[in-house]
């Protein structure tokens, strides 16, 4: 007879127990009768001899070992019944718990998917990333990409690692299908097998294909396969033209495959690349990923790499002196998403704590009013532990029901929320409701149940039984006053923190939105532009192609002005260079001031509406043959020529040995976005003409160019006409990364706006919960004081005096909460300032405004119980005594 | 009439196992048997007999089924399981050891440490 059988066949067990004991008594009675007792006497004695059948039965039930489960079942039923009796309380408690656990679960599932989960490659714990490191630093730090020769040396000499190098290789896929500009990768043949990628179709590269002169082959992404080959099996062996080169497709990658978080569409073997950079120990273009061989450790790999670094430094002192290689475990790099997620997790945890404090005070109020019931049960033999357990069961039922609702909410809300993330949440495809998340939600529910169940459960064992039984519950109320006060104070203080944080974000957003980006953001379209690969071979042809492209685009109706530029304001991508106001070679490795260089064509000023302060902007007369010129912005003017007229002054830039002449000063553009620019260290800007870019750089520069178009109509309506206009004779010139200035300006505040929205919601919820909490507690405390108030009124207290008694009580709690909350807010706003660009924490007016809102709301919530107290009928109140 | 003893802690289980080992028997008979065999010395608290029986049953030392008695009434008859037999052997052995040891100690004459 198993434990489970005993538990589930309770009635049968009881029947058999009855029968067994009955038999015993009958037999005993018969023996007693045989000794001459009367039947009635015999039965009485038999019962006494057995020791009271009910007591024996209880002991037998205990012996079954199923007691706790039966009690639990009973307690759960009792808890559900009592909850159903108070649907209002149950609804408020469940809803606030569901919101609290739901929100924390969503945050945790995001943190889990985005940060905790390893990469979706085979055995990711053995993957490492290798960088070059120098013992000196440039403005970019001391971590470098690999040169291809360095990679080959490391690969050959490091026996504990399988290594693969790869470099981004963007280009236009012009055949088959319509031309599209794509991100490609040149990779050594080991890369895909090292990551353990299972191709959807075909195969990965063979070692013999990773050599100069081998058959050009490509592995394509799932989306290129679908978009350019119609998802057909015929794609294998088909021809593909990428960046003007024909390749044979040998494999298709699975749809979910990413390099870290990025999708790349065309993979080609790096060994076939014969460009001079491949033999140059100065071209740091490569990423190196590696896998530790079986039984090799990271430390071992690091030692080997250090040895290689030392040898190369001796052998090639020109390029490798002070240079070594470092291996690090490959971990997801998610940028500022990490901080934002932790910030939000902190905020939702506060919300959950407020909900817990709320429920705790309501439950406590109930426990106190049940004091007599519990005392009665204790008097009837229930143990302390048993009563405490019952209270905990009630809290646990509440917590688990709330948690289950919360998980439901989380499951519904997780995806939309993650997709709503500004700028796209990294690794969002990894976010899902898995067992870790469920375990977390269960843990959160149980901990919160424990939190709000603790106070009522600790009260449960009535210590002074007879006192509790004799007196009304109200005489005990004083002892819980302080505990209730503590709950209200913690709720209020948490709400203050959330409110002040939200208010600060709102102020920040208002302030930032009012900032001038430095350009006229209305009606400007920008798009990166890829010339036909065929035109890139010769600088003169490239220049002509650009001129032709601009002319074609200028002819599109509604285009008012058009210019080329390499870096677009508020968009990712910048080109910081060194400069000097005295003759110097600024690339000699010493410290020079930096400036953001923008390469543009003359009409750029007209397109962007940047104001001209002095001199002139670039013109069509600035050509290759004429004096090299630059236009600088106000910030640079201040920085390089403080108190002087910069016009006509020379500047030494890295591009040419001869100085360039400053011909004009323009307004500053908030290049880094509205939020970040003012705090950025690097703000100085200069503009130089595309026409004066040296011939050897024209090709590289052309790969980075965008066009910017000013129009009188909705800029997005120009996209299709412009596309047709710039397509070119070969049909393989494409626009990509299309944006409007307006969108870029909005997007530069997306993080602030997103956080404000969430903190706004959290703060509103916190305020609501705190008000419910203070209302509930005051209503309860006031009802405990009804007789006292009755006496006061009978002795002549006015209604307003009575109201003041109640309000004073609430005001004390509110003020205590505000003091604690203000201290907490100070810390919270400090971390906001650190984590969110543009936030300034020292903002007393926001503090004051938010605290005022809270105090007013809390006083309103206390007003209802206060008024009820003032309308107490003294006669009835005294009779209650 | 000799004085009655309360059973030392834990010995009730051993006595019950021993009585049941003699053959299938119901609760009342166990009580009677204990009473008679101990010549009324051992006071079996009847109230703890049934909880003990049930505990032994749940631990798998005893098994029970319902059968008619010679008087034609249906009663719950307990039998020893193999596990119960092993338990009985183990417990009797340790009981023997204990009583022997206690006996030896008690047999010491005054100053017998010499």
Q: What does this entry look like structurally?
A:
With 881 residues, chain A is an alpha+beta fold. Chain A has four domains: 63 residues; 206 residues, no CATH class; 307 residues, no CATH class; 201 residues, no CATH class. In chain A, the strands form three sheets. In chain A, strands 1, 2, 3, 4, 5, 6, 7, 8, 9, 10, 11, 12 and 13 form a 13-stranded mixed beta sheet that branches. A six-stranded mixed β-barrel of chain A has the order 16-17-22-19-21-20. In chain A, strand 4 and strand 5 form a beta hairpin. The longest helix of chain A is centred in the middle third of the chain and has 37 residues. About 1% of the residues of chain A have low confidence. With 114 residues, chain B is of the alpha+beta class. Chain B has one domain: Orthogonal Bundle (Arc Repressor Mutant, subunit A), CATH 1.10.10.10. Chain B has four helices and five strands; from the N terminus they run βαβαβαββα. Chain B has a three-stranded antiparallel beta sheet with strand order 2-5-4. Chain B has a two-stranded parallel sheet with strand order 1-3. In chain B, strand 4 and strand 5 form a beta hairpin. In chain B, helix 1 packs across helix 4. Chains A and B meet through helix 2 and helix 4 of A and helix 2, helix 3 and strand 5 of B.
